[in-house]
Amino acid sequence: MKIGLYFGSFNPVHIGHLIIANYIAYNTDLDKVWFVVSPQNPLKVSSTLLNEHHRFHLVELAIKDADRLKASNIEFSLPRPSYTIDTLTYMAEKFPTQEFVVIMGSDSFENITRWKNYEQLIKHYPIYIYTRPGHPVKESQGANIRIVDAPMLDISSSAIRKLIQEGKSIRYLVTEDVQQYIEENGYYR
Ligand SMILES: Nc1ncnc2c1ncn2[C@@H]1O[C@H](COP(=O)(O)OP(=O)(O)OP(=O)(O)O)[C@@H](O)[C@H]1O
Ligand SMILES: O=C(O)c1ccc[n+]([C@@H]2O[C@H](COP(=O)([O-])O)[C@@H](O)[C@H]2O)c1
Fold first, then answer.
1. Model-level pTM?
2. Ligand 1, atom 14: nearest CA belongs to which residue?
């Protein structure tokens, strides 16, 4: 099976993430897309980072009816911060029969040289990149890249957290279940 790994903080998961993941799962040679919830991005410090178990639960709620999408908490048991190359190495050992590719936005790919052992990452793993406005994909020596033209929404987790703090509605920016669960538990207030 060929699996696309979509790494992120998902703080919280929103429909921008869901549209990308589902589109890529059905419009490339991938069989499945796994949302890998990262406890701690090495390059992002956030005072509003919700506990990873809650973020994982929100992802599970968001994709519960999606056949080709799955949530993974594999990084919860790995050292922090969450270095993607270490997770990939661990996953290759744990799932030797699966073929993994990495999914990322062109904004993240722009910064890839700041990632731990990025040469190893781009040498050993294909990267499926979806272009984000204002972030054209530049050729990268040695990288096995595939560009996917997926529909884009200009929304972000940080904008959603801000709306909640201001007491505004986040309806339609996240799934109904996710909205309800965030409200019931008072997350991000
Ligand atoms: N609107 C969007 N459409 C598609 N992909 C997105 C969108 N927003 C973020 N992503 C991508 O999803 C992955 C995980 O993103 P992340 O969890 O950081 O969400 P975010 O909305 O960018 O969060 P934040 O606003 O907190 O930085 C990253 O690869 C990021 O490029
Ligand atoms: O491995 C690295 O050095 C590295 C550097 C920056 C980001 N990442 C990962 O990239 C993913 C995107 O993070 P985020 O917070 O933008 O959703 C997340 O899984 C991070 O752990 C990984």
1. 0.96
2. 8
